[in-house]
Amino acid sequence: MSQGLDNLDAILENSHRIAQAIEGLEGASLSDELQALQESAEQLEGLRDKFFMKTVAAVPATKGCLTGSEKVLKAMETFKDDQGEESLMTLKRGLKDLSENVGELLEKAQMAGTTLT
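Given the sequence above, the corresponding structure tokens read:
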């Protein structure tokens, strides 16, 4: 399996963990973020068969998403521990950044390839 696909698997696993954690939170209004995360995960599942994901070009984009998902998991733990407004804002910002990274990955994966002659 390519590094891009390995990263994709890790991103999807982290996304599912994040979604489960959000569903288990009480008092946090993250329903919009949860819906966006679930939609992103569905779209990412569709990338598995894309040629782009099997190339080296996918590595930087998937690495950015993977790093973003790991930051969200850390922010989630911090929020669970203190339930503070600042940690909630950090969590929301992390989810927004992750969504943007996923959007960039989806855009790159849809781009037409280059023909080498």
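The first helix runs from residue 3 to 24. Try to locate this feature in the token string yourself.
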